[in-house]
Design brief:
The protein has 101 residues and is mainly α. The protein contains 6 helices and 2 strands; from the N terminus they run αααβαβαα. The protein has 2 domains: 1-34, no CATH class; 38-100, no CATH class.
Length: 101
């Protein structure tokens, strides 16, 4: 079954909701600033949905993530599909550093 058969309407509705989600971004940023947890970010260099030149810096600032925990992989928007092994290795590396502290 192709995507057009049965999922087209749902996909269009989701795509149309992007504007609403982006309008909520400031609210999400405020919530992130209140968190005090160890964190890391993983972004796809070739992401055509999220602005990789702007958003990683905003998330890192709001979550107080140091540069060595900000990862940009050679992938698109679906990192876990584009480079699943690299994503898993990055998460394991982050978790190992958390256990050591």
């Amino acid at each position: 079954m192709s995507m057009a058969e049965g999922t087209g309407h749902a996909f269009l509705a989701f795509a149309r909701s992007f504007r609403w989600w982006f309008e909520q971004f400031e609210r999400y940023q405020a919530a992130l600033r209140r968190l005090d947890i160890p964190a890391a970010t993983i972004w796809g260099r070739r992401d055509k949905v999220l602005d990789v030149k702007r958003l990683p810096a905003a998330f890192a600032r709001d979550l107080r993530i140091p540069p060595h925990r900000q990862y940009v992989l050679d992938a698109g928007h679906f990192l876990q599909e584009d480079c699943s092994r690299e994503v898993a290795d990055t998460i394991l590396k982050f978790m190992a550093t958390r256990e050591a502290t």
